[in-house]
Design goal:
The complex is a heterodimer of chains A (134) and B (139). Chain A has two helices and five strands. Chain A has 134 residues and is an alpha+beta fold. In chain A, helix 1 packs across helix 2. Chain A starts with a helix and ends in a 9-residue tail after the last strand. The model of chain A has no long low-confidence stretch (mean pLDDT 83). In chain B, strands 1-5-4-3-2 form a five-stranded antiparallel β-sheet. Chain B starts with a helix and ends in a 5-residue tail after the last helix. Classes of the chains: A alpha+beta (134), B alpha+beta (139).
């Protein structure tokens, strides 16, 4: 009974503090180059928060009840979906395997943007003329 | 009798927690769900500003793609000592060539939780981030 009261108390108390949504001030965007999208394939990434992490936190916080509760996540929770792009710059140099959450069609000319503290890049569609060096 | 009450209480606790919200609860909601803001910028620019913003805040992007409604991003906020986590969906809808509308809809994973990040918390930070990256004033 004592354990049950503790579990309920933890459940209530855990809702009495906050972990606010906040912006990382060190975040910097750096444009790299222009290139054309040659191929685009769906790719699964490593999760920042996996199901195992959640279950462990649930177990530590609220015992078996917490573990069961945190195990209840949607399919694919541990594998975020993005796109892997092969790009071609200056009409000849192939630059492979850029992962991005940007959804860009094949053949589009893009600006590749690097983000600080991120392995992924951003792709921004630009005028076709920027991909052809005169 | 104590055993019976204990069992009922445990079962209730488990049932209420396993019925938590997940990504599917937000992914298939109507387009107008949540809080929206209009930006005076083409959808492509807003998509880029949105992704940059999401990478710069403490949420996890789970999926992003162009849909018939617009550019859709699904995200989560991790479990912490203070929250069982949150799930959310963002839609960038093209209004016309120069205007876009962004809809943010989120749910707490546990409906029992009193605090944790609300839809307004996500929208204020994300809308401010988009506005900052677009170089416009956040109304």
């Amino acid at each position: 009974m004592k354990r049950l009261i503790i579990v309920i108390a933890v459940l209530c108390i855990s809702a009495c503090s906050s972990n606010p949504v906040k912006q990382n001030k060190q975040f910097v965007l750096t444009p790299l180059f222009y290139a054309k999208v040659l191929t685009k394939t769906p790719v699964e990434l490593t999760a920042n928060e996996s199901k195992t992490n959640r279950i462990l936190v649930g177990l530590v916080t609220a015992g078996i009840v917490g573990a069961i509760a945190t195990a209840n996540t949607e399919s694919g929770f541990s594998t975020p979906k993005a796109f892997a792009y092969d790009l071609i710059a200056d009409g000849q140099a192939l630059i492979s395997h850029f992962n991005s959450f940007s959804d860009i069609a094949k053949g589009t000319c893009v600006k590749v943007i690097k983000m600080s503290n991120a392995k992924l890049v951003l792709l921004s569609p630009v005028a076709k003329s920027l991909c052809v060096r005169g | 009798m104590t055993f019976f009450i204990k069992t009922i209480l445990y079962a209730t606790a488990i049932l209420s927690l396993v019925s938590c919200s997940n990504m599917n609860n937000v992914a298939n909601q109507p387009q107008q769900s949540g809080i929206s803001q209009r930006f005076q910028a083409p959808a492509q620019q807003v998509n880029l500003a949105l992704l940059a913003t999401l990478h710069s805040i403490n949420v996890n992007i789970k999926d992003s793609r162009n849909t018939p409604q617009g550019f859709r991003v699904l995200f989560t906020k991790s479990v912490s000592a203070f929250s069982w986590g949150e799930v959310g969906r963002i839609l960038v809808v093209k209004v016309d060539q120069n205007n876009s509308q962004v809809f943010i809809h989120s749910l707490k994973r546990s409906s029992l939780q009193i605090t944790g990040a609300e839809e307004t918390d996500f929208s204020s930070v994300i809308f401010a981030g988009i506005a900052q990256k677009l170089g416009v004033k956040n109304p």
